[in-house]
Amino acid sequence: MARLWHTFRSAIRFGAIVITTMQLAKYALVALVLTGVLSLPAAANPVRRDHIDVELIASTTSVQPGRTLTVALRLKPDEHWHTYWKNPGDSGLATQIDWQLPEGFRAGPIQWPAPQRIDVGPLANYGYDGEVLLLTDIEVPDSIPANVPIRAAASWLVCEEICIPGDAELVLDLPAGPAAADPVWAARIAKVRAALPDAANGPEVEAVLAAGQQWILSLPRSALRDVGQLSFFPEEEGWIEYASRQQVVEQGDTVQLRFAAAAGAAGKQGRLNGVLVAMPGFANGSSSVVVSPAVTLTDTLPAPPPPVASAARSSLTLAVALAFAFIGGVILNLMPCVFPVVGIKVLTFVENSRSSPASLRSHGLLFALGVLVCFWAVAGALLALRAGGATLGWGFQLQSPLVVSALALLFFVLALNMSGVFELGSRAQQLAGSVRAQSGYADAFLSGVIATLVATPCTAPFMGAALGFAITQSAPLAMAVFTALALGMAAPYLVLSFSPKLVGRLPKPGTWMVSLKQALAFPLYLTVVWLVWVLGRQIGVDAVARLMIGMTMFGAGLWVYGRWNTSSAARVRMTARAMAMLLALTGVVLGWPHDSVPQGSSLATTSGNWKTWSPDAVAAARGSGQPVFVDFTAAWCVTCQVNKRLVLNRDTVQARFRERNVVTMVADWTNRDPQISLALDALGRSGVPVYALYPPGNGAPMLLPELLTEAIVLEAIDQIAGPVRTAASRDPSGISIDQEK
C-alpha cells in the first residue's frame, strides 16, 4: 500500500511538472508573438487610409554603403480623387514627408513630377489625378548596420467633392549589401525620374509683368517641337491667378504664354520660379522644364491676340456640334421669337388637313426649303462679313434699323391680312403661310423664310455652343452646322406633313377658322410692337413716330385696296389700286429709318443695381475682390427680355446679388459693338442671350444656360461668389477643407 501511494504521488508531481512546463511554454510563445508584433512598424506597407493607398518603395532591394538610395512615397488615390503638388493652387495642401533615418543618412528634397491643372468650378488646383510617385534621394554613409530601417512620417490631402487629410508612419526595412534593382519598382521609378521636369537643359525664358496685370513668358519658337499647348505652374504662391486662362500667342520666331497676374505680384521679390509644360513637347525631348526667369516690369498691356476658340468651343467635335445644332433648331420652335409664326403654320395645316398626302408633303418640303435658304443666306452673309474683318455675331441683321423697320412693316401687313382688312387673291393668300393646297406653294416657301427671319435673333439651348463652334471653322464646316440648325427648326413641320394620320386628327376646316385666323393676328400685332420698341432703343423715339406714321399710311393703302378692289366697276378697281399704291409708297418714305447708329453705343440701363458693361469695369470689380454677373443681351432678343422679366429682375435674385456682393452689368448688343462681339468670342459664343458669372480675380467665368430659372441663377451665385480662398482652406484639421463643388 505504501508503495502504491508513493507511485501515485510521484505521478501527480510529474503531471504538475508537465503542466507547469506547458504553461511556461505557452507564456513564452505568447511573449514571443507579442514581441514580434510590437517590433513591427507602426503601419505596414502598403497602408490603406480613407480613399488612398500609401507606401514607401525603393529602387533597389538592398542598401549599398556609400551609394545613393532612391526611395519613393507612392500615393494611389481612388478613382476621381486627387492629391496635390508642392504649390497646390487655389486650395488644397501639399504632400509632406518627414524622414527619420539612421545616423549618417541624409534625405534630399522631394522630386516632384510635373503637376496637372485640376479645375474645380471657379478654382484651379495643381496636383495629381491618380497614382503618383514622389522620389527622394537618400545619401548613404560608408558605414551602415546590417539592417537599415527607412522611416517616414507622411501627411497628405486627398480630395474629390470633399477633402480628407491623412497621415501615416511608414517603414521600409532593407538589408545592407550590393545594390540590386527591385524587380517591381526599379523600372517604375526610372520612368518617373526620366519624366521629371528638366532643370538643366530648358530654353531661355523671359518673363514680363505688364501693368501689374498680365504675365508674358517668351521663349524661342525653336525650343518647341510644335506650337501646341503650353502651361506654367509657379512654385510659389502670390505670382499668378491660378484659374486664369493661359493663352499661347505666336510673335514671329517667339512664342508667348500669357496669363493673369495675382494681385500684388508687382511687389514680390525674386524670380518667377516654376515648371513649364509643353504639348507635344520641347525640342530637347522633355515634356516639362524648370524655369527661373528674371522679371521685367512694363506699364502697358500688350495688344490682345486674335480671337481663338475657347475651351468650351474647341472641346466640341463636328459630330457633337451638328447634333447640338439640330437639337437647338428643334427647340427654337418653342422660343418666344417664333411663336407668332408657329401659329400661322398651325393654321396652314388645319386648312390643308383634307388635302392630298402629296400636297401636304410638298408644302412641308417647301417650308423646309424656305428655312434652309434663309439660314444659308444669313449664315453666308455672317461668315463673309467676319472674313472681311467685321465683328458680327448671330442675329446681326437685327442690329440694322432698316431691317427692323422692314420686319415691323411686314408683320403689320400680315396681321392686317389675317384680320380681314384685305386679301391678296387666290394666288397668294396670307403671305406667311395660310395657303391652299392648289395654289399656296410660294406662300409655304415664304412662311419658312419669315419664320427664320424672326427666329435667328434667338439662341436656344444647345445652339450657343454649336454657333460658337461654327464661326471658327472653315466655310464648308460652318455651313454644315447652320444646315443642321435649319433642318432641326423645320423637322417638326416635316414630320407633320409626312404623317397623314397626325394631320387627319386635326379639326375639319369650317367657318370657325375665320375666328381662329383673326385671333392669330394679335400675336403678330404684338410682334410689331416689339420691333417698334427695338427701333426706339436703336435710334430714338422720333424714328418710332415716323415708322408709326408710315405704317398708318401703308395700312390705309391696304384698306383702300381691300375695300374697293372687289368692285364690279373697272374704273373703281383701277382707282383703288392706284390710291393704295400711292399711300403705300408714302408710308414707306415716311417710315424709312434715316438715322445712323453709332457702333458701340451702349443702350444698357444703369438704373437700379445694373451697371453698364465694359472690359475695364469688369476687371476693376474683379480686381477689388467682387464677382461680376454680366447679362449679354439685346432689345431684339425676346428670350433675353423674358429672362430679365421673369428671373433676373425678381426680388429674390436681386437680393441674392446684393447679399453676395455681386456686381451686375448689362452688355447691350442691340447695336453693333465690336467690344461685346470680342467678349462673346472669348466666351465661345456668337449670339445672345449669354449669361456669364465671373469670380473675383481672373478665374474662368461660369456660363449659365440660355433659358434661366431662379434656381439656376441662385445656385450659380452661391457656387461662384463664396469665399475663394480662406485660412480654413489651408487647415488640414478639418474633414471638408476644400469645398470643391
Provide structural commentary:
This protein has 741 residues and is an alpha+beta fold. Helices cover 40% and strands 20% of the residues. The chain has a 5-stranded antiparallel beta sheet with strand order 1-2-3-9-6. A 5-stranded mixed beta sheet has the order 15-16-13-12-19, with no helix packed on it.
Brief write-up:
This protein is α+β, with helices and mostly antiparallel strands and 741 residues long. It has 20 helices and 24 strands. It has five domains: 1-39; 47-194, Immunoglobulin-like (Sandwich), CATH 2.60.40.1250; 206-305, Immunoglobulin-like, CATH 2.60.40; 312-413 and 422-517, no CATH class; 610-728, Glutaredoxin, CATH 3.40.30.
Number of distinct helices: 20
Got a strand count?
24
Instruction: Outline the low-pLDDT stretches.
Output: 1-44, 306-314, 425-439, 597-606, 723-741
Mean pLDDT: 78
> What portion of the residues fall into strands of 2 or more residues?
15-25%
Termini gap: 93 Å
Helix content: 40-55%
Principal-axes geometry comes out as elongated
Please tell me how large the radius of gyration is: 38 Å
